[in-house]
Structure formats: structure tokens, C-alpha cells
User: Fold these one by one.
Assistant:
Number 1:
Amino acid sequence: MSQTHDGQATGAIRDADVLIVGGGLSGALLAAHLLRLPGRRQVLVIEPRSELGRGEAYSAVELGHTLNGNAARMSVDPDNADDLTQWLTDYIAAGGWPESKQQPVPISELFPPRGIFGLYVQQRLAEAQAIGAQQGSTVEHVRAEVVDLQVAADSALLSLDDGQQLRGACAVLATGMFPAARTPQTQSSGLNAAAVDPWDVSAMAQLDPQATVLIIGSGLTMVDAVVSLEQAGHRGPIEVFSRHGLLPHVRRQPPAWVDFLAEDPSLRTPRQLLRALRGQCRAALVAGVDWQAPLDTVRAHIGRLWSQATDVQRRQFVRHVRPWWESHHHRSPPLSAELVARLHGEGRLRIHAASFKGLQPSAGGRLAICIRRRGEAHTGWVVGDALINSSGIEYDWRRVARPLPQQLLARGLIQPGPLALGICADPGGAVVDAQGQVASRLFAMGPPLRGMWWESTAVTDVALQAKALAVRLAALPL
Ligand SMILES: Cc1cc2nc3c(=O)[nH]c(=O)nc-3n(C[C@H](O)[C@H](O)[C@H](O)COP(=O)(O)OP(=O)(O)OC[C@H]3O[C@@H](n4cnc5c(N)ncnc54)[C@H](O)[C@@H]3O)c2cc1C
């Protein structure tokens, strides 16, 4: 018999060095770095999905569900920006992704399907495993959900949904994003139960091709949903509702632009930034340069600016700038954007600036959603045949109805991050508990750190964090 950290007798506990909770992109990249570093360590990645390295994003099976950046922007190796391009070159040469040959652009400018990107991540993990094996380091996939976690001065203990317990010298929360559709708020409105999965083409193929489809949310998930509908043979009207009615812009390949924020570190408040950015975009347009060029220089500064900002400034940003930041910065891959633009031009897809308020069944098996149009005080109903929820992510862990976030909060092992976005951590990812103590054995990376960095989700964010966190963990006394 062993004992848990709160002294309760339990069955055998399995020991390891590093426990990674979640085996999506973050978990896989962290594991790969740990394998490559000198030293011998046993890493367990606990992930209910059948494969590591994919998570929700890279489990995509449709070729039309692509990355939103071209290959040259999506390397998982912070030291080699061409890593994905090189891998993709070999993959295509070996007969993979034959459809890519229909696009007359260099491989570095292709937007790979996310499922193929998942293969790339898996291959990089497999290569790291071979290197780690030479020094006795291992990574093992434990297929389960972590439902509870306790920490002691020199270890962390995980409880899994199959009853197993794992003890490690440290644990890392790489649990990714929690879809808003799984939070109690959307569950109680019935949205989750009534909605078709934005990526489920076979479910969409069951719809009448002329069905009126209502989509809540107008970001990149909506773009994927439109691709799915097209692929499923849908040819009817699509009505899109989102608070501001803004569509993601299309990603182009802008030239380099002066890093104006590096040159003027006095620019800090959202108002100053916006004014300076608008000025730079105007200057770019006057010079005949794409406005995306100056915008793309901001990305490298976002983490610093966000972490230096006061809560009041962060709130101003979220309230006034966020919708525009999302639509201008999180841009759409060109082929998907072309489809959305075509359907919009044909009048088949309409965008409404309106917020979703509720839903109810309607006559003839249809459904009605209650909306409030922007600028109007009253609500109204819109009837459709099917509904897709692409309203995004729940970053507030207090509202995530999964056992682990709830247990971590109940045990006081975490506290909400700034603006209740994700959880609080020090700059290197060590989790801060409810009393403000920095944990010595519990870490987090990727989307859970949204509140600390604002942008903590994209491939490049996760790749950088994985590398730095691996170095920190490797230095811990095991
Ligand atoms: C649909 C979609 C498309 C995206 N497209 C792009 C893109 O084009 N470009 C870009 O830069 N970024 C994109 N992103 C963002 C980003 O790359 C992903 O969010 C990235 O997958 C983050 O990796 P992650 O491992 O932290 O999270 P996830 O990939 O979400 O993986 C987290 C994993 O943790 C597991 N997990 C959660 N809780 C537990 C638990 N208690 N116990 C065990 N396991 C648990 C989950 O099963 C999941 O597999 C996209 C995201 C999504 C959702």
C-alpha cells in the first residue's frame, strides 16, 4: 500500500520523472525537448486521445481544414524556421499530400492541412524518442484523463479516471483549450446539444443540401465550418451571427517592415499602440506595401506588452481592440477565405452583427435562435434547419465543467490568470497557487497561460514555451 499526498491509503502508485497532463501539440513538443536534453528521464504523457501530438487542432481529417499560416511560419523548431518546409518537402516527395501539386507556389508558401501538420509533430517526437533512447530516456503515452492532482514539496501526484495513480518529480498542465461549447453556460442554453460539430463533415452530409444553416461566431472556426459544409455538399443559405460581425482577413505574404515597437519602447497603452499601428499601416499603404506588414511586427511584442500592462489597460484592450485584433491578426488561410468570400458574394452566406441569446425548437423539426442585433435594444428570433456553434474557447477555468480544473481550483493549487483568462504562473510557467505561492513542482504551458501572455496558443508560442520549459524542468532536482 502507498499513500497519497493527503495521507490516504491507496493502491500501487507508478513513479516517473515528468508527468505531462495532455498530449496535444504542447505535451508532444515538451516531451520531445525533454528527450533531447542531456540526462536520463522517464516522461509520462497522459492523454485520452489515441494519438499524441494532435489534440483537437491537428486531429483534423479534412484536407480543407488547413493551418492558418504557411509552412514557413509554422515550424515547431524555434531554432530552424524552415523545419516544417523541409519536412513537408520530403513528405510531398515521398508521395504525401498529392493535392499540394495543384497549388503553383513554393512549398514554404503552402498552407498544410492540419492533419498533415499533426503527422509532422508526431515524426519529430519519434525522432526525439530515438535520440532519448540512446541515453535511457523514455516517453510513454498513458491513455486516460487526469481527474485530480496533488502536490508535495518534491513531487506531484496524479489520479486518473481509470483509477491509476502516477507520481512524478513534477507535473505540467498542457491541457490546451476548452471549447466554449463544453461549459455549463452553453450547455444550459441547449446550444451544445443542438449544434453540429464544425469539423464533422459526415454529420453535415446528413443535412438537406438546401438547409438553412445558422452559425454562431465568425472567427476561424466558422471558416472551417463553411469549408466542412461545402465539402459535405451543402448548397443552401448560411447565416452567420457574431457580436461585431467581423470576418477574419485573409493571410497574405507581406514583406518585412520596420519593427516600430522595438524602436519606441515608450508605446505601451492600448490607445498609444493602436494610434501608432494605424499610423504605420497608413504609411505602408501610402508606400504601396500591404498593411499586414506592420501588423505582423507587433506579434513579437504582444507577450511583453500584455504582461507589463495594468488590468485596466488589459480590460480596455479586450473590450475595444480584441475583436479587431482577432479579425486582423488571426487571419484565414487563402483557399478557405476564397470560399467564404465567394459564398458571401453570391449572397448565400450572410454575416450579422448580433449576439446569441438562446434557442428553442421550432415547427417542422427546425430550430429558432434568439439574437440581439448590435445597436438594438430588443431581441428577435431567426429560424433555421441546423446550427453550428463556432463561438470559441472558454478560457475561464472556473466555468470549465471538467474534473481536473475543478479539483485544482478546489484544492487551491491554481488561481485564475489576469482577467480570469486561464491560470496564473510565473514567467517560466511555474503555477501560482491560490495563496500566491509559486509552485516548485507544478507547471503549465500553452493555452492555460493565455492570461499571462495574451497570445499563448499558436504553434510558434507553444514551440517557444516547450523549449524553455524543458530546460527548466531538466534543471530540477529529481
Ligand atoms: C481547430 C483549431 C485550429 C487551430 N489552428 C491553428 C493554426 O492554424 N495555427 C496555429 O498557430 N494555431 C492553431 N490553433 C491553435 C494551437 O495550435 C492549438 O491550440 C494547439 O493545439 C495547442 O496545443 P495544446 O497541446 O496546448 O492543446 P490541445 O491541442 O488542445 O491539446 C491538449 C490535450 O490535452 C488533453 N487533456 C485536456 N485535459 C486533460 C486531462 N485532464 N487529462 C489528460 N489529458 C487532458 C486533451 O485531450 C488534448 O488532447 C488551432 C486550434 C484549434 C482548436
Number 2:
Amino acid sequence: MKLIIFDCDSTLSSIEGIDELARAKGPEVFAEVEALTNAAMNGEVPLDQVFARRLDIIRPDQATCSTIGQLYIDTVEPTAVSTLNTLREKGWTIAILSGGFKRLIEPLAEFLGIERIEAVPLELDSEGKYLRFDNSYPTTYNGGKPEIIQQLKQEFSPDTVVMVGDGVSDLETKPEVDCFIGYGGYTPRPKVQEGSDHFIYKLDELLALV
Ligand SMILES: [Mg+2]
């Protein structure tokens, strides 16, 4: 089988879910969290430190999570639906691998017909208030995405694995995959572009590459 794995934030959708959760808490929280996210995505601060700090600040509840879940769909990459449909016709199995939160990404995955989501579990209480995130989940730390890809390779024994993403944490998967495609439609990063096998600005450009 052929496995293609997509990052979610700033790749399948234009938004960064964590930033949108923060925006819902007001401009000061947003500015603080956005700076942390950018520092992590540019490889300036270790991801695990940023993760805990951001959630301690935001403490997202169920209502906010639902709002952002819909926002992921509203901001879907313009060529994503047709690209994924074509990939399925060509026999690709599609998965999402994200450092974002699983419950935020699930609506978009359903919209896109993607069954497999690897993303960070976020636990709320029975009243929908924030409890905790799973700080042992691999994508909360640097090197976590390659770890998940190793697990997926064991599970599926794919003949070919392709990864598509915009961030440094995505580029970390390159040694584990047959082809790494950098995506720069929203946040092109020189470091990612330099390291990629191919670099695209619209998702449908990858159809000529795989
Ligand atoms: Mg991303």
C-alpha cells in the first residue's frame, strides 16, 4: 500500500488551531501564544516547553473547541478536497499527523474523509472544562512526528510513504519517508524549503509528484 501523511495546521487548513484557541481568549493571550508557536515552528524553542506553556495560558473549553473545529473546515486549503479525492482514486491511504489537538481536527478530517488522525489528545471534564492534554503524546515534543511515522510503518507495512507539511517538526520526518513535500501556501519557511524533496504552494501540485 501507499501511505500519504498530511500535517494539518497551515497545510490542510490555513489556521493554526492553538492560535485560534488563544484568539478566543482575547488579544493579550493571543499575542503571547502566537509568539510561542512561531518560536517553536522556527525551531527556536523546544516544542515540549511551548506546549505546556500555551495550554496553561489558554485552558480551552468545549464551546471554544467546537468553534475552532468548524473554523478548520471554513479555512480548508482550496485544493484539498479535490486533491485528496484524486489521491484516493490513485490508491493512496491518507492520514493526518499533527501537533494540534485531535478533538479540534476531527471535524475537518471527517469533512475530508480521512479516517486516521494522529494528534494530541485534549481532555475535558463532564462540564466541558479543560482538564489536561496528553503530554506523553509524541507530537508534543521534537522528534515526535518521526516516532509516529515509525509506528504507522509497522502497522501498515507501506511500500511508499510520503509526508506533506509546512513546519520544522514535519521536516524532521524526512529520514523516515520516501518523499518529503514541503508546503508553503500559507507560511513558507526557508528552512523547510531547503530540506524538502519538493516544495509546493498548492496541495494539488503534489499530484504531479507522487
Ligand atoms: Mg503545520
Number 3:
Amino acid sequence: MSLLLFLLNLLLGSYKIIPSLFMDKRLLGSLVIILFLAIYSCSYQPYRQANKSYKRQAKLYAKEVRRTPSLFFTTQNNPLYWIGTTNFNMRKPNFVIIHYTAQNSCEQTLRTFTLPRTQVSAHYVICKDGSVHHMLNDYLRAWHAGIAKWGNLTDINSASVGIEIDNNGFEVFTEPQMKSLFQLLDTLKLKYSIPANNFIGHSDIAPSRKADPGKYFPWKTLADSGYGVWYGDTTNVVVPDSFNSVRALRIIGYDVRDSISAIRAFKTHFLQDTSCILTEADKKVLLEVAERSL
Ligand SMILES: [Zn+2]
């Protein structure tokens, strides 16, 4: 109670007022409630439970890493020995997959990624004001790609960092978002030696299921800075009669089991067009990109 009185004194600026407060119990009660709400709002952390859960899971995985492989399997006839090598480090991401959130606010996405029932996550979320939320250690596997394929790689989550950009899919990306994205890509590329061609979008790796980051995403600007493949002037490119569009898409990395969707994904990425018909001009671009992907 003495602490409360002291705080009330601070609030009211004078010790002389306190005695009169006791005369008016309703006023005193109101002040106590206001004080409680002020303290509560200062300490309120909406993601406290999620952060606790993160630490708990990270501890379990650390325990798993410390186990010796002899516990993993047994052999029938031959003895199994465990000798720890001295030469190793952690596996690292080799791809960056870019998404839009398809949601209406950053807050909504942060909440989605901290609810166990949603079963989705990403390493980073970039809000419209350019603020970046790091949600998972880059060495751990986020659940952002889903069923996906790029070349022969089918477990994209294990090989990649996922970046979600707050965007509902029908709007341009903001300048602060792009600025933060470039800083993040720069850091990731340098830290993990990620090849330029391995900066791709969700629709590239899951063309029949996903459309993000969509036609408004500035892939050319990214490619100009070394994130992703792009093409040069196609004026003098001659497409041979024998040109096989599906094979070219496969060379780039697209899953062509659904070739129409693969064409749409290619055009969304390289031509900012969501149609699924390849014109002669489109084929020139496809040929160029395929050659740069070899
Ligand atoms: Zn996505």
C-alpha cells in the first residue's frame, strides 16, 4: 500500500492531496484501476506465449542434435560404432523464397504464424513501414513452401529461408518494404553464399497452387542487384523451330507436370502478366532465361 501511495503521490504531484483521497473512496478506487491498467498495458506482451513455445521447441531440437547417431538405428549382424568427427558445422539455407502474405495487415500475419493450428510460418515478415520481424533462426526449417518443387529439389523448406512481405496481392509493395528487403537479401546472400539464381518466388516453386509474390513484385530490380536471374535485350534473339517451351521451363527449374500453370508462373515472374499463353516475344524471353539458368 505504501508503494501505491508513493505512486499516487508521483501521479498527483503532491503529498498533501493524498489524505483527501481517502475521504473520497470512489476517486481512490478509480485511480487504482487507472494505475493498474497503465502498469498492465506497459508490460503486455501479446507474443509472450509464442516466444516461450519457441524456446521450448528450440531446446528439444538442441537435445536432438546432441544425440549420437548410434541411437538412430541398429544393424543386424555388424557392430555399429560411433566416433564423432571433429570437422563439421551447421547446414545452411541455399535458397530464398519470397512471398506476399495475402493478408490485410502485418499484425494478422504475425498472429497467423504464432498460432499452432495454422501450421504455417516464415523466417522473416516485412511490414509496410519497412519493419522486419525475424520469427525463426535461419538454420531451422520454417513451414512456408508447402508442397513445392524446383528442379529436382522437393523439400524446399529444408533448403530455404522464407520471406513474407505484407501485401494482400492487389497492391504495389511499399518503398520502405523494398528497402528492408534489399538489406535482408544482402545479408542472407553474403552470410550463406546463396547463388543469384536461387532467389525465387513461391509461385515459381508451386505454380499450380500459389500466385505470390505476384505481378507487382519488382523481380527485375532485384535481379539488377544480383538477386534472381533476368534476361537481356531480346530484339535479336532467334527462337529455333525446334524450341521446346516445356523443356525450357524445366531447365529454369519449374515443375512442368502442370505446364499451363508453369507458363503462368513464368509469365508472372518475368513478364508481369498472369496469362498462360506464350507469344513469340514471350518465347524469346523464355529462351534467354533458360540459357542463363544452365
Ligand atoms: Zn507464399
Number 4:
Amino acid sequence: MKLIVNGEQHELDIEQDAPLLWVIREELGLTGTKYGCGLAQCGACTVLVDGMAVRSCVTPVSSVDGASITTIEAVEQDEVGARVVEAWVRHQVPQCGYCQSGQVMAATALFKQNMNPDETDVQVAMTNYCRCGTYNAISEAIASIKEA
Ligand code: FES
Ligand code: FES
């Protein structure tokens, strides 16, 4: 199986139904992407697959064979991702930080599709949970990107 992760190509001999999250963390050692619920609920495991936000805990690796995957480790190589990270830092969004790589990936996918999303677009895209309740700071960071 061929995976392209953060611009690097990997040939992997793994089970077809292995979750993408496991492959990213255990096979490739990219531990910035987090495991939360394992049920496609919390969004901690969000990565980009061809620019779209995907919950990697429920994504069989076989379904992304040949696709371009971006994790938090390389998000700043993307012009939009770099703007999102900069806004997250400026607004000091993270508290414990556990959910934040997923939040940043979800926001990056949102802005890659539309640099001026309306409230509905934001609500649809930003469904990741944050146990620390950083939602207000996330909203401020997102608003600042729209205005930038
Ligand atoms: S760990 Fe994937 S959505 Fe929660
Ligand atoms: S910053 Fe702690 S869970 Fe979101």
C-alpha cells in the first residue's frame, strides 16, 4: 500500500482495514494526531486527505491508498494551515492542547474551501469537541482569519 503523508511517500505492508490513525501514529511515528473516542465523534484524530478533514480513527487505510495526507506536523507547510496556526497562537486557543491538532486541521480544511465562511459554514466544519471549553477562543481565532 502506498501512502503519501506530509509529502513523503511510504510503502507499507499493513492490514487493509487498519485505521489510518493507527498507521499515522504507530507505523510512521507521527504522534501529533490524537486518539480520543475512536468513534468519529470527538475529532481529535482529524487529518487532511486531499485537503478535506477526515476522522482518521474510523478511516480504513485502504480507502486513502494513493491520497495525499497532511497531519498537524506539516500543516504549516500549507499557506492556509500556517494562517490558522498563527491565529491559534495569537489568540492563545489551546489549554491542555489534546484536541487542538484536530481543531487546527478542521479549521484548515474549512478555510481551504472558503476563505470567507459564514456562521453556518463554521458550525458545519467545526464540530470537534474540546473538554477544556476553548470554543470562544476558537471562534475568535476563526473570526480573525476571516478578517485578515
Ligand atoms: S478519535 Fe477519532 S473522532 Fe474521536
Ligand atoms: S484544549 Fe483541552 S481538550 Fe481542547
